[in-house]
Every structure is written in structure tokens, then in C-alpha cells.
Amino acid sequence: MKKGQILHNIVITTVGFGGVGVGLAEDGRKVLVKGSVLPHSTIDCSIFKVKKDYIMALPLRVVSIEPERADQTPRCPHYSNPLISVPENYVHKNGCGGCKRQLLSYPKQLELKTHLVNDSFRGVSYLLDLAPLQDIIPSPLTYQYRNKIEFSFGKYITKASNDRKAKGDRSTQGDEQDFSHYHERQLGFHKQGSYNHVVDVDQCYLISDKLHEVYNHMKNLCKNSGLPVYDQKRHTGVLRHIVMRQGFNTDQILINLVVANEKINSKELDIVWDTFYKTLLSDEVLRSACTTFILTHNNTVSDAVRRSEAETRILRGEGYIFEELKLNQAERPVRFRISPFSFFQTNTFGAQELFSKAASFIQLPEDKQTIMDLYCGAGTIGLSLLSQGIGKDLIGIEIVEDAIRDAKYNAELNSLSDQSYFVAGKTEALISTDPVIQEKIEQVGLVLVDPPREGLHKDVCVFLNELKAKYNFQLIYISCNPVTLARDLDLLVQGGRKLENLQPVDMFPHTHHVEMISVLS
Q1: Which of 220, 382, 448, 473 is the most buried (most CB within 10 A)?
Q2: pLDDT in tens, 328-368
Q3: Selection from 366, 368, 397, 367 nearest residue 382 by Cα
Q4: Is residue 485 scored above 70 in pLDDT?
Q5: Mean pLDDT, range 26-48, rounded to an integer
Q6: What is the pLDDT of residue 464?
């Protein structure tokens, strides 16, 4: 078998975490299909990578599917799936890689996510015997739930280019005849499997109507500005991204327009830029709708904007907005400042459910009222617990210094500075060297961990087990990846911990993502 070869009638037996479909080739090798596929469907697919033990492919056609599996018509016109036919004149608006589960009704999506979690624990299934999986908590909103979204500027996806990519051909031959990057200013999401092609998005149903109105207005301003979009391959052009954030409980909106100002190197473009800049300052729609408007200059090759490498200019407002979390047990909401680069849970109402459920599992003894959060970020979870009267003190540890600054501000904002201590660094080092932590460590009754998708490093699991031998505390592990969670829980339980609860929470409808709360005593 080789790259570009078409495989026919591959039966997708299961869909693993990450949305990858799993089938079997005639030679017995696994076929891993990236894209919008469903379990128990039969597809044709195109090979794009061949390994000794497995083959990777992209879906081309759905040969058959059980009717009860695909029980819903996708709401989004930009949805990409071989089941959906695309008009030839609409191909540049089709191919979005998000929301892959739109062919399933929401109850079916929750069933599939439960299956994915169970499948993630297949190698350590004894854990499910210790703590059977609880019913998944649904998201309060299935559409319009995102409080943050990022749109990218780019170029048309032409039919010729789209056809080549579907067949696994990632060359750029012929692309220059298909678009002009100085005149075609598309704004939307990256095409599935492509970093330099953008699907032109008219509407995204994951954001509110109010945010969508601002998006459409910004899109028109930018497309009519005359400024070239940034070219990912040649690193030329100006317009790069629009990042939008909204406080669902405060009704505040932040807009961050990301540009590459070093690419403005002609007198003609200088004039165009000056005109556009004045428009941003004077535009009445932006003035009335946006709490704050920020212009960020990113002249690096990477799309990821780092606060230390970017030049930020505030055109309107204070450069940040506020959001509140209203938790079940709280008498008053917890308030958080959100800047362009702050981390905050993307689903506000889902976060309220997640934190409220986590709080319901906590049992702190009278003599151990200190909470220690080892991946505290901006202090969101720990401060939310303190505000509910859970615990008397909070120790927050985070390796990112900018996040610690945000956490300290949020503590002051909620009158919790006297009860909280935030410090930047590695947990293993700070536990034995920081005098404040040394003083409070024996009063720690709860340790929170909410690591990135790659989970806990093995050394951290060993460290937590060693810490348990000295100090008795409850451990709550919140995870966005059930695969790495299963791996880490195995190490923690083998180290003497008792697994008590496994609670899935859906924070991202129409995707494969699922949050997990695990409780260990």
C-alpha cells in the first residue's frame, strides 16, 4: 500500500479520542481515518501515510451508514463531511474542521462521548470497577456556548486545491492560478488538515448573536480595507487574526485584531493602513458594541501570539473585560478579569456546572482547610471554591508567570487576597523550598490538578504519591483528555490512592472533547 491509494469499503468499528475512526485494511493493518466519520459506517478513504503497523487516511465517500446513527441534519453550512454534497461555487466556504458531530443529535453525541471515555480506560478497566462512570453532565447550551473564538484571515480554497487535498496531495502546484492573496480576503477557520487555507465563514453557531453581528461588521471592514491578508508560506501581508471574547454574565465584548505591521513596507500600503486605522477608531458600531478593542502586532512566523513577543495597543476601553461565574453553592458570583492572552474556560455556563460538581465532591476535615492547586492558571477553580466557603486558604502554583499575575489580580478583585498565595514555578521544587508553602503544607486537605491535554508527567504522579505518604489529603483531578487521565489514575491508584468518582462533563457539544472530574481519597 502507498500514499494516494484509495481504500474501498473500510468499516469504521470505533471512533477513538481525538475523533479518529478505526478500521481494518485487507492486510490486517489498522486504518486510522482523520475526519468526520462515525462508528459502524462503511467508507472509501485515501491513504496519506503508511506505517508498519497502521495506515492513516482521509475520508472520501460514505458508502453506507446505519440510519439511526446519523439522525440529524447539520445546522452549519460550513460543515465538512463526505455525506454532505457541496455546490461547486461554495467550495471555498466548506471544509471547516470543527463541530464534527453535527450529524448526531445531542443525546447521541453524549452516548458517543461516554463510549469514548470507556474506550480510553480499556487498558486499565479495573479503574471502572473501582469507580463506575457516572452519567455525563450535558452542556447547558448546545449552540452559542463559546465565550472565545478566533477567526483567521486567508485565501480561497478552490475546487482544484480541495480535490487534491482530499486525495492526500499536499503540494501547492497550481494554487497561484486559483487565488490572489492581495485581493481575496477570506476570514474564517482553517480548513481541516491545512494550515494555510481558510474556509470563508459566514456564520458560526457556536457564538452568540451579538458576537456574530460584531464579527460580520469587522469582516466587512477588513475585507474592504484594501490590506493584504497574511500569507503563511511567504510570510507577507498584514491581516492575521481576529480574536473575540465575551462575558456571558457581564455582556462585555473584547476584540483583538492581530496584524503583522512589519509587512507594511510601501508608501501605498502606508496610506491604506492609516485610513483603516482611523476607521477602527471612529467606527460607531465598534464604539457601541465593544467594551474594549485591542490591536496586536505579531511579527513572528508563528500564529501563536505570546504576550512577551507581541506589541499591544489599546484603541478603546481598558484592554480587558470581566466575566463572572455563578456557582450553585455561592451566595455571590466570582469575578474574573479577562485580557487578550488570559486563559479562561471557553464555555462559561459549562464551567459553572463543572466547578459546582467538583465542589460537591470535596470533603475537608476541620484541621485541614487549605486547598493547593498545582496548575492554578489564573486561579479560576481555587478562587471559585474559596468564594463558596470551601477551605480557608488557597495555595496556587503555576509555571506561567503571566497567569500568576492574573491570579493575584483576581484574588484582589474578589477580596480573597488575604486567603490566597500564588507563586510561579515547578511544584516539586516549591514544595520543599518555598517558606509559605512549607508553613501551610500540613494543613492541606485538598490538592487540585487540572493539567494540559498531555496530562501529568510521570514524575508528578510519583511526587503526589510521595506527598500522600507524608500528608493525608483528598485529590481532585480535572482532565480534558480521558486517555492521559486513565494513564495517570493507574499510577496514582497503584501508589495507594483510592479512586472514588469518575464524572464526565460535556463542555464542547458537536466535538469529541469531554472533561472529566476524578476524585481520589
Answers
A1: 382
A2: 766 789 999 998 888 899 999 999 999 999 999 999 988 89
A3: 397
A4: yes
A5: 87
A6: 85
- Give the long-range contacts of residues 493-501, CB within 8 A, separation 24 or more: 493/127, 493/130, 493/520, 495/461, 495/462, 495/464, 495/465, 495/468, 496/465, 496/468, 496/469, 497/465, 497/468, 497/521, 498/130, 499/127, 499/130, 499/131, 500/131, 500/361, 501/131, 501/134, 501/361
Phi and psi for 401 in degrees, rounded to 5? -65, -35
Cell of 361: 465532591
Domains of the chain plus CATH, in order, are: 122-141+347-520 (3.40.50.150), 149-161+175-322 (2.40.50.1070)
Taking a C-beta distance cutoff of 8 angstroms, is the pair 483, 462 a contact?
no
Q: For residue 204, give the nearest of 102, 323, 303 by alpha carbon.
A: 102
Which grid coordinates are listed for 321?
473585560
Q: What pairing do the DSSP bridges indicate for beta strands 515-520 and 148-154?
A: unpaired
Please give the Cα distance from 338 to 297 (Å, whole number).
19
Q: How far is residue 130's CA from residue 499's CA, in Å, rounded to a whole number?
A: 6
Highest mean predicted confidence (pLDDT) among 58-72, 368-382, 422-436: 368-382
Mean pLDDT value across residues 436-443: 88
Cell of 224: 474592504
pLDDT at 453: 87
263 DSSP assignment:
G
Grid cell 516549591 in the structure block, residue: 430
Pairing of strands 239-246, 198-200: unpaired
89: phi then psi, degrees, rounded to nearest 5: -85, 5
Measured between alpha carbons, how far is 518 from 426 in angstroms, rounded to an integer? Answer: 23
The mean of the pLDDT values for the chain is 86
Write phi, then psi, for 514 (nearest 5 degrees).
-150, 140
Cα–Cα dist 328/102, whole Å: 30
pLDDT at position 89 is 55
Give the C-alpha separation, 14 to 332, whole Å: 44
Q: What is the pLDDT of residue 159?
A: 44
Tell me if the pTM is above 0.70: yes
* Burial readout 223-232 (b: 16 or more C-beta within 10 A, e: otherwise): bebbbbbbbb
pLDDT in tens, 460-477: 888 888 878 888 889 999
Question: 517 and 472 in contact (C-beta within 8 Å)?
Answer: no
> What sign for the dihedral angle of Cα 340, 345, 346, 350?
negative
DSSP string, 118-164: HHHTGGGTHHHHHSPBPPPBPPS-SSS-BSEEEEEEE----HHHHHH
Specify the 3-state DSSP secondary structure of 219: helix
497: which 3 cell numbers? 490512592
Q: What DSSP line would sit under 460-496, residue for residue? A: HHHHHHHHHHHS--EEEEEES-HHHHHHHHHHHHHTT
